[in-house]
TrEMBL record, chain A:
One of its GO terms (molecular function) is branched-chain amino acid transmembrane transporter activity. It comes from Mesorhizobium plurifarium. Keywords: Cell membrane, Membrane, Transmembrane, Transmembrane helix. It is found in: Cell membrane. The chain crosses the membrane at residues 30-48, 54-76, 88-106, 126-143, 150-171, 191-209, 240-260, 280-303, 323-342. This is Branched-chain amino acid ABC transporter, permease protein. InterPro entries: ABC_transp_permease (IPR001851), LivM-like (IPR043428).
UniProtKB/TrEMBL annotation, chain B:
The keyword Transmembrane applies. This is High-affinity branched-chain amino acid transport system permease protein. It comes from Mesorhizobium plurifarium. Keywords: Amino-acid transport, Cell membrane, Membrane, Transmembrane, Transmembrane helix, Transport. It is a multi-pass membrane protein. It is found in: Cell membrane. The chain crosses the membrane at residues 20-38, 50-76, 96-115, 136-160, 189-211, 223-252.
């Protein structure tokens, strides 16, 4: 199986790329993305119509994680380089809209000394989101320039360094980011319907990138750098491209989080988020967008269950003690076991729609 | 003059500690390509075993030092046996993520089984005193840190260059297959490398405990992140690179400590990392790393 992406890339580069052919592929991957997003859509609609408020709140959090994991997949899945800094972009997105869109009355309380006139600036949510994403894009472009040049391991370490840099700026630039305290008063303008729309959009975008000529070439170069370079594939450029797209999707998740929660603090966007989302992606399988979706669904439910034990449950009339750290142990065990026994995760190499068509073909025989 | 000397000693002591930890990472990486994120938890195991021993009444500093180093070496070997052997031949990313997982598990086990809060350990506080040399007052801990790190690195160099197993380890970092063809067991080479890596972490743990006087679940995590950065800047997998990278990191940190005004002190970590990332723009392969072209066999 090894080298299959490479041979596909060869085929694609050798074939005369007729408009009809590429159109066909585009439609197929668009439909594939929508099929992958279907379970998410169904769960979202069920929660929207039937679930009590508490579960809606949980679901909103899970959808933010979903978008983060999908964003993470765009870089990790295609380039096969571990990224341990993506929550920096989530944080940048969230703080970006917090600083731009919080009402002036609230700002007087929270960041009265903000530099650059931010203390007297209040934009509408949409333009705030666009500017925040622009900032995320610029930071991603600059950091990506460095990261795309490094070998796999060094790139991972630098992604971590980026996380620490961004986190430490959030903590210490108190005039602008309020430091360790919660940043409150962000307009709560996003509900479940919008979250659902953006989750589906993120999934489709990730899928389109994966199936695109760039995604394919990047996956090929991750499998065999020499062969891909011999074909004239510019791996650095492609890594940069997927890094920026990945960051933008993560930034979007941050924007949405700020707009539904209304309150953010730096520690939300630090290692805890990295652990959670990384475990989700690994469990589901990082090679596919389907894997990202599967991992989030399975682990969100699993973690909620474990958290209820963690906070001390009553079993047969006996109050169990608090077990702080249990969910962390579970996350770590999930990662270790997955890596040892099924490195390709639950969903393996195939997307959901590819599995369907494989099944159909097998039945037809 | 006094101040400058003091800061120089500071930088050397910080650098020595980073070098020790970074060398431990590099020994393991050079042989089996494992990016050992769980290295910090080896420091953690070592520190917590001193804490537990103290709780059981073993309060001799000498025993504590032996225990710290021994437990760290043991923990490293056990981690390898349980978690890293199944992914030994897997791609680098798989090993890296496994190690990350191990790190999360062990950190949370400390939290679950002992306490999420820092616990005080006073056994080794005696190491941290002020020594007076005429007009100079220096911290005994820093002097010891420097001397012990120097001796440890010397011992490591001697072991790697003079002993058969050391030779095997150096050879394995170039071509493991050939080393095995020479009749040396892979498991033995790797276990030795982990034991060395663990012992280096244990020595670092002694100094951390003596300075902080307490243990907490994330004790080693931050330090190991810095050691990783030291490795990257020196050239990942290169042992001299790790030592030089660690020293350089120590000097950058102390330099910033001196140069930055008090109100910006919080940005020290951010700036340290930013400087290092900027250095990588010019030398992506690290200071002592060699540029390896695709297809090169000899490193």
């Amino acid at each position: 199986m090894a080298g299959s992406e490479l041979s596909q890339a060869v085929d694609q580069m050798a074939a005369p790329t007729g408009a009809a052919r590429s159109n066909n592929a585009l439609v197929r991957s668009l439909i594939g993305g929508l099929v992958t997003a279907l379970p998410v859509l169904v769960i979202g609609l069920l929660v929207l119509n039937f679930a009590p408020t508490y579960y809606t709140f949980l679901a909103l959090g899970a959808f933010v994680n979903l978008i983060v994991v999908v964003g993470l997949q765009v870089f990790m899945g295609n380039s096969n380089i571990a990224n341990l800094g993506h929550s920096a972009f989530v944080g940048l997105g969230a703080y970006g809209v917090a600083i731009l869109s919080t009402p002036l009355a609230m700002k007087k309380l929270s960041i009265p000394n903000a530099p650059f006139g931010f203390a007297t600036l209040e934009l509408d949510p949409v333009s705030s989101a666009l500017i925040a994403l622009l900032v995320v894009g610029i930071v991603a472009l600059v950091s990506g320039k460095v990261i795309s040049r490094l070998s796999g391991v060094a790139a991972t370490i630098v992604s971590l360094a980026l996380l620490i840099i961004v986190h430490s700026v959030f903590l210490n630039w108190t005039d602008l980011f309020k430091g360790n305290q919660a940043f409150f008063g962000i307009p709560k303008v996003v509900g479940l319907p919008w979250m659902l729309v953006f989750a589906v959009l993120a999934i489709v975008a990730a899928r389109l990138f994966k199936d695109s000529r760039w995604g394919l070439q990047l996956r090929a170069s991750a499998q065999s750098p020499q062969a891909a370079a011999a074909l004239g594939i510019d791996a650095k450029k492609l890594r940069l491209m997927s890094w920026v797209l990945s960051a933008l999707i993560c930034g979007l998740a941050g924007v949405l989080y700020a707009y539904f929660a209304g309150t953010i603090s730096p520690k939300l966007f630090y290692f805890q988020m990295i652990f959670n989302t990384l475990a989700m992606l690994i469990l589901g399988g990082m090679a596919t967008v389907t894997g990202a979706v599967t991992g989030v669904i399975v682990l969100s439910i699993g973690l909620e269950f474990i958290r209820s034990i963690e906070s001390g449950v009553t079993v047969a009339g006996i109050q169990m003690p608090q077990l702080l750290g249990l969910s962390g142990v579970a996350l770590g065990v999930v990662i270790v076991l997955c890596m040892a026994f099924r490195p390709s995760g639950i969903s393996g190499r195939h997307e959901l729609d590819e599995l369907f068509s494989l099944l159909l073909r097998r039945n037809a025989k | 003059m006094d101040y400058a000397l003091q800061q120089l000693l500071n930088a050397l002591a910080f650098g020595a500690e980073y070098s020790l930890v970074a060398l431990g990472l590099a020994v393991v990486f050079s042989i089996m390509g494992l990016v050992n994120f769980a290295h910090g938890e080896i420091i953690g195991v070592s520190a917590y075993s001193v804490f537990l021993a103290a709780a059981l009444g073993l309060t001799s500093p000498f025993v504590a030092v032996l225990l710290a180093v021994g437990m760290a070496a043991l923990a490293a070997v056990v981690f390898e046996r349980i978690a890293f052997r199944p992914v030994r031949y897997a791609p680098t990313t798989t090993g890296l993520l496994t190690a990350f997982g191990v790190s999360i598990v062990v950190q949370n086990l400390f939290m679950l089984l002992i306490s999420p809060k820092p616990q005080s350990v006073s056994v080794l506080n005696g190491l941290n005193q002020m020594w007076f040399f005429g007009p100079f007052a220096v911290s005994s801990l820093q002097v010891m840190e420097l001397i012990v790190s120097g001796l440890t690195i010397l011992a490591l160099v001697l072991f790697l260059s003079r002993s058969t197993l050391g030779l095997a380890i150096r050879a394995a970092s170039r071509d493991f297959a050939t080393v095995r063809l020479m009749g040396i067991k892979a498991n033995r080479v790797i276990a030795t490398a982990f034991a060395i890596s663990g012992a280096l972490a244990g020595i670092a743990a002694v100094f951390i405990l003596a300075r902080r006087g307490s243990v907490s679940p994330d004790l080693g995590f931050g330090l190991v992140l810095k050691a990783f950065v030291a490795c990257v800047i020196g050239g990942f997998g290169s042992l001299p690179g790790a030592a030089v990278g660690g020293m350089l990191l120590g000097f950058i940190e102390v330099g910033l400590l001196v140069a930055l005004p008090q109100e910006y002190a919080g940005f020290r970590d951010a700036l340290t990392y930013a400087i290092i990332v900027a250095l990588l723009v010019y030398r992506p392969e690290g200071l002592l790393g060699q540029r390896i072209e695709l297809g090169d066999k000899e490193i």
